[in-house]
């Protein structure tokens, strides 16, 4: 049995496969119906309207419907797309056992404990026929897949076959009036719609199940007499049988063919396999049995330990079965469907229907070569598993599971190719794995001795070689080399030199696929693909949620693979994507250009044409074949959000820019790539399309200003701020660029807008003291105005203000030193753009510019040259004010004229700027070398966390949120306060900080674990962590030392620090993972022991509790020397308190540890003295005869059999009242919460 999917739930009583989708319905004894995707392993939906167990469920063949029947006497028809019950059919008077849709008509057949079978029309929602005749519960009823028959099984010990041909003719509208008249007569005078055709008697007890053969006139039944019976019937016809009930024509007979015995309890369900000549049955004896129909013997038995089986279902089109049991269900196959094949150059050798066949890819010619013998065993899964071919000797090795693993060697005569009638006598041998390693040599794995036997074509052993690891399968790895698979690793072994050429830790590898040049290898496991070099140097790893089925390399070095429902690709750097979907699984044999050659599950050769544009484009980018990239951009239809996201992720937004027409997307990509010119053009077009959206307009012009400021392009910054009318940012821009003239204009604009704070800020930026005093005075802040004038030496103004203030003149402090005035700083660079790094233009910037030349020409026609539109940035726009502010001046123009004095107001004509400041410069992309900003790459912290599920690596990257979520999910940790220092240590320890210029920020550099000079420059390793297992080992020794000395406060502190550091530890091997888990247990025990001992010392005034805590301490799992000390202490405490019986117990336990002579002497004396009395003066809550664990919170014993809850991290045990509270041992996790378990190594990911 090959289990494909398994669920855990209440007892499953009904099952049904969907005909097209990978879905299965399971009806439960709890009344819930579950809809599962068995391919993904996920619960899609649940339906909960039945009251009581649901025993029958069935999918409709074509409609989005299913039907269910339960113990509430109701039949419900559901629409799974609408997620609801459409209607309920009422009529049965007792439990409903089974329900089934008819394959063609709108009928439902149901069987019930009311001793009837009913046929319903689900379109009219009526019962159209009631089949009576059984005199006990009817356990099942099913339609025949082709004929107008129904078979039913009942506890009255019979199986009945019903003819419903008359019902069909009655339901389907008659073609002429005569037939319609006869039908009316039948209805009036009591015609019979369904009649009993056969009554099959032979079972000694109630029959639980009966089902038809899909094509032959056979019936199989299973009953409470533990027997499976096979029945044959003849006279099957579409014509109605001319008889009344209980009478049979002579030509209709049915008889028992054979009885299959083997089940040890009631047979629950039995059915014919749709694709093979076998019967499958299950039983309450907790087994599923497979029987050969032709030989009528048992083939195989599958057992569960604790679960009785209740129901079976078979997929209508695929080789899948499902079985429901007491605690869930399983979906399984009886045999592997993957054909054994081997590809050599342009040829494919494969096995189909017990024949070795030859397929030529170039001509697509398929020929039969030689027959392969059938296995002598009758059990399943004995077919060929692997095939290895030697082209020079024309020899074939076929491996199978026959006799626990064996191989067969065939030498194919040249003349037999194409004929396939030559019977070859194979050379056989034991060994589950055998491959050719040279022209006329093959290797056979001897698992028992962990060695390989090298044999010649005469099947003679010529050499033996021990293997370096415990190997269970060997694969070909080049001439003279083997790839050996162990449990968690693979190694390449040179048979000649007996050396290990490569070693790689992997998940459990199922298939090994070498590239055509043998330079790369793909290692396929159930849900992962590892790409490595020929020396097993790791390149990348790819994880899939659905099973990986096959794969092959194309000529360009891309690995193409299939899952159950997709064809996908994997580039050498690990990037992957979907090529197309699949209806049924296939097994790729070869890839030639855009054509995939494959075998399906029936062993038929197929060729599939694919569109390789996407992965060829990505591969060209990866290999920097930019000329090919350019051609593909110009000619192909590459587009879509996925491609744009990919180019952005790879740091090529300038390439993605040429795939999009949407202006907002172009704007975002232009900003990301630093292309200010395209960003401005897109921003202006966005304004033209949405002139009314002021908020959006401000947003994208603001973002443009931020990017231009980052590049130091002050002209564009100024223009963007003018478009958003952001006066505060404009003022600050003029300050830092030293443009005092425009800053003066901003002061006047603030005055016109009556913006007091704006006026004050601009005056502050200008260093204009008189203006500041004037603003403060006009705003009514006379004391501030007086202080400002006094401090800055404007004595005349200060005296005038003092007169106005009178007695309210503020007193100024005495100044010992001459104060420094608050004046604007001198700008580093006055005017002009900031200098940028000079870099050579990339290939895309020139080539793609010409590709988009048409678009640019249109832009130039509309907007003119860059210089022309930049002239609009002149602050003297129109009336001499910044763009957009002229109307503000016009509003107050009259007020300026009324004053009439020459020294008051301000003259607009005096505000002209020098012409060289009017035009901001945009980088000119038509030169070969230009000023551009380097595109920032992906931060190392993001690289670290992309594919890691280890909390320590996330914390080292600074992603504390994700680290905490991981710890919460894996270990149930909710209290992160004790871990704050650990988080900070990890972050600071994985980075180094370099000081730069005095005014520049410190530069942070990531520190990688295992870095070496030979490392690939662009491949980032994981972060270096400040905590490692060796440090914890040192702490453990210190904790042991403190325990020996009796410093229990220090013991508690040390072991708590170990528990707080372990969640962040990262180790390499599975053995180290086990060591870490063992350390958690040790630390937990010592923390508990230290807490008990500290608590004991606080209870000196309570002698009973004092003794109990000393006794509990001896049940902590301590090292032997510490256990001796705990026993010695408990013995002394109890002896002094005259609890002699308990003291004697401790003395015996101490002597069993072989203590030192002085301890042994004391123990013997106490034992001798205690055995004379053997009484306890004070009763204790301590029974040393009954095993227990100590509750870590209440410090009371939890005896065996009592309920308890545990901490998901440290495993400490608690009484149920502590459920949901914080663990008192680790002080991190919540007691009783769900957690997936500690993850501290990449090797744990399977």
Automatic annotation (TrEMBL):
InterPro entries tied to this protein: Beta-prop_COPA/B_2nd, Coatomer_alpha_WD-assoc_reg, Coatomer_asu, Coatomer_asu_C, Coatomer_complex_subunit, TPR_COPA_B, WD40/YVTN_repeat-like_dom_sf, WD40_PAC1
Q: Which residues form the signal peptide?
A: none
Does Membrane appear among the keywords?
Answer: yes
* Highest taxon in the source lineage: Eukaryota
Q: What ranges does the record list as Acidic residues composition bias?
A: 855-865, 889-905
Annotated coiled-coil positions are none
Alphabetically ordered keywords of this record: Cytoplasm, Cytoplasmic vesicle, ER-Golgi transport, Golgi apparatus, Membrane, Protein transport, Repeat, Transport, WD repeat
Domain named Coatomer alpha subunit C-terminal is located at 841-1245
**GO annotation terms (biological process):** endoplasmic reticulum to Golgi vesicle-mediated transport; intra-Golgi vesicle-mediated transport; intracellular protein transport; retrograde vesicle-mediated transport, Golgi to endoplasmic reticulum
Q: Which residues form the COPA/B second beta-propeller domain?
A: 356-600
Per the UniProt record, one Pfam family is: TPR_COPA_B
Q: Which GO terms describe its cellular component?
A: COPI vesicle coat; Golgi membrane
What segment(s) does the record annotate as region Disordered? 853-905
Localisation: Cytoplasm; Golgi apparatus membrane; Cytoplasmic vesicle, COPI-coated vesicle membrane
Q: Which GO terms describe its molecular function?
A: structural molecule activity
Q: Can you say where the WD repeats lie in this chain?
A: 47-88, 89-130, 131-164, 200-234, 260-301
What PROSITE patterns does the annotation carry? WD_REPEATS_1, WD_REPEATS_2, WD_REPEATS_REGION
Q: Per the database record, which ranges form the COPA/B TPR domain?
A: 627-792
UniProt membrane topology term: Peripheral membrane protein
- Subunit notes for this chain? Oligomeric complex that consists of at least the alpha, beta, beta', gamma, delta, epsilon and zeta subunits.
PANTHER family xrefs: COATOMER, COATOMER SUBUNIT ALPHA
Q: What does this protein do?
A: The coatomer is a cytosolic protein complex that binds to dilysine motifs and reversibly associates with Golgi non-clathrin-coated vesicles, which further mediate biosynthetic protein transport from the ER, via the Golgi up to the trans Golgi network. Coatomer complex is required for budding from Golgi membranes, and is essential for the retrograde Golgi-to-ER transport of dilysine-tagged proteins.
- What is the protein name given in its UniProt record? Coatomer subunit alpha
Source organism of the structure: Kingdonia uniflora
């Amino acid at each position: 049995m090959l289990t494909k999917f398994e669920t855990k739930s209440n007892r499953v009583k009904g099952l049904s496969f969907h005909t097209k989708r990978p879905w299965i319905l399971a009806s439960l004894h709890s009344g819930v119906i579950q809809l599962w995707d068995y391919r993904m392993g996920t619960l899609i939906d649940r339906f909960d309207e039945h009251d009581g167990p649901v025993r029958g469920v069935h999918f409709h063949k074509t409609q989005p419907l299913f039907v269910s029947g339960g113990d509430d006497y109701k039949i419900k028809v559901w629409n799974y797309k609408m997620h609801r019950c459409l209607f309920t059919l009422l009529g049965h008077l007792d439990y409903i056992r089974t329900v089934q849709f008819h394959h063609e008509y709108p009928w439902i057949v149901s069987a019930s404990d009311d001793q009837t079978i009913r046929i319903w029309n689900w379109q009219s929602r009526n019962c159209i026929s009631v089949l009576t005749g059984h005199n006990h519960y009817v356990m099942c009823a099913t339609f025949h897949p082709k004929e107008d028959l129904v078979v039913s099984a009942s506890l009255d010990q019979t199986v009945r076959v019903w003819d419903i041909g008359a019902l069909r003719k009655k339901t389907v509208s008659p073609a002429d009036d005569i037939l319609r008249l006869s039908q009316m007569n039948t209805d009036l005078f009591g015609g019979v719609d369904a009649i009993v055709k056969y009554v099959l008697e032979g079972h000694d007890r109630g029959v639980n199940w009966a089902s038809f053969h899909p094509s032959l006139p056979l019936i199989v039944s299973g009953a409470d007499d533990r027997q499976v019976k096979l029945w044959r019937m003849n006279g099957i016809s579409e014509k109605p049988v001319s008889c009344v009930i209980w009478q049979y024509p002579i030509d209709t007979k049915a008889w028992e063919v054979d009885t299959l015995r083997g089940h040890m309890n009631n047979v629950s369900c039995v059915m014919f396999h749709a694709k093979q000549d076998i019967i499958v049955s299950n039983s309450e004896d907790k087994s599923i049995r497979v029987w050969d129909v032709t030989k009528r013997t048992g083939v195989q038995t599958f057992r569960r330990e604790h679960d009785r089986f209740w129901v079976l279902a078979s997929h209508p089109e695929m080789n899948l079965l499902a079985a429901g049991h007491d605690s869930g269900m399983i979906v399984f196959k009886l045999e592997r469907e993957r054909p054994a094949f081997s590809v050599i150059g342009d040829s494919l050798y494969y096995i189909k229907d017990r024949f070795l066949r030859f397929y030529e890819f170039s001509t697509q010619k398929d020929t039969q070569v030689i027959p392969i013998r059938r296995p002598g065993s009758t059990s399943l899964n004995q077919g060929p598993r692997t095939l290895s071919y030697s082209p020079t000797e024309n020899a074939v090795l076929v491996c199978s599971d026959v006799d626990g693993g064996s191989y067969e060697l065939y030498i194919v005569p040249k003349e037999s190719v194409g004929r396939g009638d030559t019977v070859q006598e194979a050379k056989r041998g034991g060994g589950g794995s055998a491959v050719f390693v040279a022209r006329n040599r093959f290797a056979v794995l001897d698992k028992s001795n962990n060695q390989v036997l090298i044999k010649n074509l005469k099947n003679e052993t010529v050499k033996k070689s021990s293997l370096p690891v415990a190997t269970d399968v060997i694969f070909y790895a080049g001439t003279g080399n083997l790839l050996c698979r162990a449990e968690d690793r693979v190694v390449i072994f040179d048979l000649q030199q007996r050396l290990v050429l490569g070693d790689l830790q992997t998940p459990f590898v199922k298939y090994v696929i070498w590239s055509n040049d043998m330079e790369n290898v793909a290692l396929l496991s159930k849900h992962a693909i590892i790409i490595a070099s020929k020396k097993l140097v790791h390149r990348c790893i790819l994880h899939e949620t659905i099973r990986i089925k096959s794969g092959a390399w194309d000529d360009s070095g891309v690995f193409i693979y299939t899952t159950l429902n997709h064809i996908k690709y994997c580039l050498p750097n690990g990037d992957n994507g979907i090529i197309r979907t699949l209806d049924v699984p296939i097994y790729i044999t070869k890839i030639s250009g855009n054509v995939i050659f494959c075998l399906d599950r029936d062993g038929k050769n197929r060729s599939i044409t694919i569109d390789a544009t996407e992965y060829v484009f990505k591969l060209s980018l990866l290999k920097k074949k930019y000329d090919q990239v350019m051609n593909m951009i110009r000619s192909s239809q590459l587009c879509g959000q996925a491609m744009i996201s990919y180019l952005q992720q790879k740091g090529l937004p300038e390439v993605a820019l040429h795939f999009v027409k949407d202006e907002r997307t172009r704007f975002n990509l232009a900003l990301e790539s630093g292309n200010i010119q395209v960003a401005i053009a897109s921003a202006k077009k966005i304004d033209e399309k949405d002139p009314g959206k002021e908020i959006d307009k401000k947003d994208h012009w603001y973002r443009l200003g931020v990017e231009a400021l980052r590049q130091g392009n002050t002209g564009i910054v100024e223009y963007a701020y003018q478009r958003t009318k952001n006066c505060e940012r404009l003022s600050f821009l003029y300050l830092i660029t030293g443009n005092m003239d425009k800053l003066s204009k901003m002061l006047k604009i603030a005055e016109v807008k009556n913006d007091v704070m704006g006026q004050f800020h601009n005056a502050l930026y200008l260093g204009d003291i008189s203006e500041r005093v004037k603003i403060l005075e006009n705003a009514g802040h006379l004391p501030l105005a007086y202080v400002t004038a006094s401090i800055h030496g404007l004595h005349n103004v200060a005296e005038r203000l003092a007169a106005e203030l009178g007695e309210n003149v503020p007193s100024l402090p005495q100044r010992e030193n001459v104060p420094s005035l608050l004046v604007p700083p001198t700008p580093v660079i006055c005017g002009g753009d900031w200098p940028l790094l000079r870099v050579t233009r990339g290939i895309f910037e020139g080539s793609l510019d010409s590709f988009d030349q048409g678009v640019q020409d249109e832009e130039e026609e509309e907007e003119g040259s860059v210089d022309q539109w930049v002239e609009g940035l002149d602050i003297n726009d129109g009336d001499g004010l910044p763009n957009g502010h002229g109307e503000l001046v016009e509003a107050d123009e009259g007020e300026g004229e009324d004053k009439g004095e020459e020294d008051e107001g301000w003259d607009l004509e005096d505000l002209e700027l020098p012409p060289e400041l009017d035009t901001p410069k945009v980088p000119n992309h038509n030169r070969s070398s230009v000023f551009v900003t380097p595109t920032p790459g992906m931060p190392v912290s993001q690289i670290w966390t992309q594919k890691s599920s280890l909390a320590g690596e996330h914390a080292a990257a600074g992603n504390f949120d994700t680290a905490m979520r991981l710890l919460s999910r894996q270990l149930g940790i909710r209290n992160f306060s004790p871990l704050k220092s650990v988080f900070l240590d990890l972050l600071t320890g994985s980075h180094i900080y370099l000081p730069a210029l005095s005014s520049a920020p410190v530069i942070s550099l990531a520190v990688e674990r295992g870095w070496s000079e030979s490392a690939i420059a662009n491949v980032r390793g994981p972060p270096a962590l400040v905590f490692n297992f060796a440090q914890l080992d040192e702490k453990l020794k210190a904790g042991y030392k403190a325990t020996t000395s009796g410093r229990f406060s220090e013991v508690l502190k040390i072991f708590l620090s170990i528990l707080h550091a372990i969640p962040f530890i990262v180790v390499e091997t599975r053995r180290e993972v086990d060591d870490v888990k063992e350390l958690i247990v040790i630390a937990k025990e010592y923390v508990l022991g230290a807490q008990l001992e500290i608590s004991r010392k606080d209870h000196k005034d309570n002698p009973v509790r004092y003794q109990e805590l000393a006794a509990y301490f001896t049940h902590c799992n301590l090292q032997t020397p510490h256990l001796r000390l705990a026993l010695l202490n408990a013995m002394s405490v109890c002896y002094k308190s005259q609890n002699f019986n308990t003291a004697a117990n401790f003395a015996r336990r101490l002597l069993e540890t072989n203590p030192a002579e002085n301890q042994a002497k004391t123990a013997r004396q106490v034992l001798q003295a205690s055995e004379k009395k053997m009484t306890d003066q004070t009763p204790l809550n301590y029974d040393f005869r009954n095993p227990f664990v100590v509750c870590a919170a209440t410090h009371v014993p939890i005896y065996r059999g009592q309920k308890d809850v545990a901490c998901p991290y440290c495993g400490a045990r608690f009484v149920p009242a502590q459920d949901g509270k914080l663990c008192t041992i680790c002080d991190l996790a919540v007691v009783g919460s769900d957690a997936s378990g500690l993850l501290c190594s990449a090797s744990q990911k399977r």
